[in-house]
Design a protein that fits this description.
Layout: H1 6-9, H2 20-27, E1 28-29, E2 32-37, H3 47-63, E3 73-77, H4 81-93, E4 99-103, E5 119-120, E6 147-148, H5 149-165, E7 169-172, E8 177-182, E9 188-192, E10 201-202, E11 204-207, E12 242-246, H6 250-260, H7 266-274, H8 281-292, H9 301-308, H10 315-322, E13 330-335, H11 347-362, E14 368-372, E15 398-401, H12 408-411, H13 415-418, H14 441-447, E16 470-476, E17 482-486, H15 494-498, E18 502-507, H16 518-526, E19 530-535, H17 538-548, E20 565-567, E21 576-580, H18 582-609, H19 622-641, H20 643-653, H21 672-692, E22 698-699, E23 707-709, E24 712-717, E25 721-722, E26 725-726, H22 729-734, E27 741-744, E28 752-753, E29 780-783, H23 786-794, H24 796-825
Parallel strand pairs: 2-11, 3-4, 3-11, 4-7, 12-13, 12-15, 13-14, 16-18, 18-19, 19-20, 24-27, 27-29
Antiparallel strand pairs: 1-2, 5-6, 8-9, 9-10, 16-17, 17-21, 22-23, 23-24, 25-26, 28-29
Helix pairs in contact: 2-3, 3-4, 3-14, 4-5, 5-19, 6-11, 8-9, 10-11, 16-18, 18-19, 18-20, 18-21, 19-20, 19-21, 21-24, 23-24
């Protein structure tokens, strides 16, 4: 339901496009024709807004002939949403540029959002305007849909990588730009802290340096992008623990709402609000919003909401808010600003804060304290006691200091060139109007049709051609490096598997000296069509490879990985020599094998879920099969774009061990020989859970588990034994799982939960202690029993019903166990 009438819903469409000249004028630093500032001093800084600014700026640059489409040289500083969108836009629109370089001081682009579960929505900040409920960003390139920030980042990273591999676009990671040196003739020199690319001179430099991390993260406050501890229940022995939130921007308001509502994620709060029927209050809310954004307005929004909305707000709204408030906590919301709620924060966040404050007061809870216009006494209280001026000190159970970004490190290298930039001092346009920036008609026309085409489905009928045996030589190089000699380089290691090639490996290096390489070589050889290692250190290599290929480390008892070792023989090696350090050589081989494993998994899933519909023993209803393939296509794009994400997802399909860091042998079992028996069904199980559970999990690159959604973590695992014991209920329950949900594709028994009273060191009546996992948080273990298989065959509604029955059983079991605790304590 849209809460506001047509007049306010269409306010975005009545703002005329800025002309290319105006866009360039706003971005250009006076006196420096070739340096443009992109989004670094804006107020509305969502991922979507920064992308729109990037597309508009690139279109304006080309419209105004700031860069030559053929032979031009462009540098972009910053690998956030604005920088990478500008880079892809230039790569697609100007394929004949001479240089297009993106410099990023982190090891990769979109570093802040990597693996994050914070929810991103392209249009939430325009709620309730027309189209604000659409989950599709609607961009012609670098498009995305609403979801966890890590998934959005993975999708954007995939398109960036595709552009990088098919254009002149070059990424320079781990490169901090230390200064820009403009010349009187126009070109700009980019100086970095490392040797590469320092001699590059560019026609145009785009400063997309962003805002940096939040300030004051060196204490107890977690970064906004980290998984929020407020999304779940709060466990402590303290009575009415105090949660302290300081901040009046959207970051502070979101954390306050997550503290106030009982274990709700931000997107759930937003969805709840959008479903409320405000009745006559919606027109009054519209009037207040229009007044607040009028020229010269000075409206106290919270006071206006209380005076004008509270008397006419439907009772159902107050009931919906009050029943979702978190019990048994106190919350202190603080801002140093004179008023709570500023107009530049999102309307749905402001409205929610007002409703929470009034509902808390209306039910007489009075659990929330609001302090405005009061400074901290002394330094910012990043840890320890908090003292507000004129008040007694107090120490909260948890604190969230959302006091703005720490932009100084980002700006420092450019302070000289930015000294004359008006946008650094005067409010940008986004601070004087409420809506997100809109893509100009010119930019939309230029970039439409330049986005990536539909994904090409793999053709499993055309496997890679087989080739003859392969000879590889390993020898000692300079300064402890290893020399790899072969017709295939380390970058082509995946072709050994795809081509079905046998390998004869000749190592002049002892097992001890080659220790960093052992796991990579064991994995390579274990899944090759044939493998023999020839060495002068036969005993050492047999012990090393034997330990790595031991049956205990494999996902099932019927596997046999053989990496035979023979005495040294002389052999002629054909091919080029590549010299790398042993760790780098090992990492390169492992990465290429991961990619090949993903490629083969993709092809097998296409056989099963695509048009071939190959049988697997799990009959899948056609419409559900198509849904699973669509979801896998999304996952595959994210996995293909992120090596770390791919590694974690695949590794845990074939291993029950989720220790950090992973054991050295953890990857040896991951390859073609484990593809069909262990990886395929566990992936389908995870896809089915994502589609049918109402909790759309997706691959995660951070511990624990290999899939996650919001605060839910999961481990989809295809092993058929654990610790050399055949997989069964007892074996599964004895395992120390790290996630909230465990999906075991080879457990063919009914779902089980790890009951709290099975442990011999405690009973169900023991009082909980700090750090103890509550009954409701014990891992939920789901096996592929007859009910699950029948649901796959029946279709998506039956799959949803099946999974919901599991959750209902879990809740009822947990509730009854908690009642036992309460009765015992009484």
């Amino acid at each position: 339901m849209c809460l506001l009438p047509t007049a306010i819903r269409h306010r975005c469409s009545i703002v005329p496009d800025m002309t290319p000249q105006q866009i360039i004028e706003n971005a250009r630093i006076p006196g420096m024709q070739g340096i443009l500032v992109l989004g670094s001093f804006e107020k509305r800084v969502t991922v979507y807004a920064q992308q729109v600014r990037a597309l508009n700026l690139v279109d304006a640059m080309l419209s105004e002939n700031l860069v030559r489409p053929r032979g031009g040289k462009v540098a972009i500083i910053g690998g956030g949403a604005a920088g990478i969108t500008a880079a892809v836009a230039l790569a697609r629109a100007c394929p004949e540029l001479e240089w297009l370089d993106l410099f990023e001081r982190s090891s990769g682009i979109l570093a802040l959002q990597h693996g994050s579960r914070r929810f991103l929505h392209p249009h939430f900040y325009d709620w309730p305007a027309a189209g604000s409920d659409s989950e599709d960003a609607g961009l012609p390139i670098m498009n995305w849909t609403a979801g966890p920030a890590g998934d959005v980042a993975a999708r954007l990273r995939a398109e960036f990588e595709a552009a990088r591999h098919n254009s002149v676009l070059t990424l320079h990671p781990d490169q901090t730009v230390t200064k820009l040196v403009p010349s009187t003739l126009g070109p700009i020199r980019v100086v970095v802290d490392k040797g590469s690319a320092v001699r590059r001179i560019y026609d145009v430099v785009i400063l997309a340096i962003g805002f940096g991390l939040e300030a004051h993260l060196d204490g107890e406050t977690p970064t906004y992008w980290a998984p929020s501890g407020l999304a779940g229940p709060i466990h402590t022995q303290l009575q009415n623990p105090l949660l302290f939130v300081s901040g009046n921007g959207d970051g502070g308001l979101v954390d306050f709402l997550m503290a106030a509502f009982n274990a709700l994620e931000h997107h759930e709060i937003g969805a709840m609000l959008m479903g409320l029927d405000l009745g006559s209050a919606r027109a009054e809310l519209e009037a207040i919003e229009q007044e607040a954004w009028a020229t010269g307005a000075d409206v106290d929004l919270l006071a206006a909401y209380r005076a004008r909305l509270t008397p006419i707000m439907p009772a159902a709204v107050w009931h919906a808010i009050a029943e979702r408030l978190r019990p048994a906590v106190r919350i202190h919301l603080h801002t140093r600003e004179p008023r709570l709620l500023r107009r530049t924060s999102a309307l749905h966040n402001r409205l929610a804060v007002y409703l929470v404050l009034e509902a808390d007061r209306g039910i007489g809870s009075n659990a929330i304290t609001v302090t405005t216009g009061v400074e901290f006494e002394g330094d910012i209280p990043k840890r320890g006691a908090i003292t507000l001026a004129g008040q007694a000190p107090f120490e909260p159970f948890r604190r969230f200091l959302r006091l703005g970004p720490d932009s100084a490190p980002n700006l420092e290298p450019f302070k000289d060139v930015l000294a004359g930039y008006p946008g650094a001092v005067n409010p940008p346009l986004s601070a004087t109007r409420p809506e997100s920036p809109a893509l100009t008609a010119s930019a939309a026309a230029r970039f439409t049709g330049l986005g990536p085409g539909p994904a090409v489905e793999p053709d499993p009928a055309a496997p890679a051609p087989a080739a003859g045996p392969l000879t590889i030589s390993l020898a000692s190089g300079a300064a402890g490096a290893v020399v790899w000699s072969c017709e295939l380089g380390p970058d082509d290691a995946g072709q050994i598997w795809s081509g079905g090639r046998s390998v004869a490996l000749y190592s002049e290096i002892s097992a001890v000296d080659a220790a960093p390489l052992a796991a990579a070589l064991a994995r390579l050889g274990a899944h090759a069509s044939g493998f023999t290692l020839y060495t002068k250190d036969a005993a050492g290599w047999r012990a090393s490879l034997g330990a790595l290929c031991a049956s205990k480390a494999l996902p099932g008892p019927d596997l046999e990985f053989l990496c035979p070792v023979a005495e040294w023989q002389d052999a002629a090696v054909i091919g080029r020599a590549v010299q790398l350090t042993a760790p780098l050589l090992a990492a390169t081989i492992q990465s290429r094998l991961d990619r090949e494993a993903l490629r083969q998994l993709h092809a097998v899933l296409y056989e099963i879920l695509g048009p071939p519909a190959a049988p697997t023993g799990w009959p899948i209803e056609p419409a559900l099969r198509a849904r699973l393939w669509d979801r896998w296509s999304e996952w595959h794009d994210a996995l293909a774009a992120d090596d770390a994400l791919c590694r974690r997802f695949l590794r845990l399909l074939t291993s029950e061990d989720d220790r950090e860091p992973a054991a050295e042998a953890a990857l040896v079992g991951l390859g073609p020989k484990t593809l069909r028996p262990f990886m395929t069904k566990s992936t389908i199980f995870a896809l089915a859970f994502a589609v049918g559970s109402g909790m759309p999990v997706s691959p995660t690159g951070v511990h624990p588990g290999n899939v996650a959604f919001d605060s839910l973590t999961g481990h989809s695992c295809g092993v058929s034994w654990i610790n050399e014991r055949r997989l069964g209920t007892r074996c599964a329950m004895d395992q120390a799982w790290t996630t909230g949900v465990v999906l075991l594709s080879q457990l063919q028994e009914a779902v089980r939960m790890m009951e709290g009273d099975l442990r011999m060191d405690r009973s169900i009546s023991d009082a909980p202690v700090v750090g103890t996992i509550s009954v409701s948080e014990e891992p939920l273990i789901i096996g592929a029993d007859e009910g699950f298989v029948a649901a796959l065959e029946a279709g998506e509604p039956e799959l949803q019903e099946y999974l919901q029955s599991i959750f209902l059983w879990r809740n009822e079991t947990a509730a009854s166990m908690l009642e036992e605790v309460a009765d015992d304590a009484a």
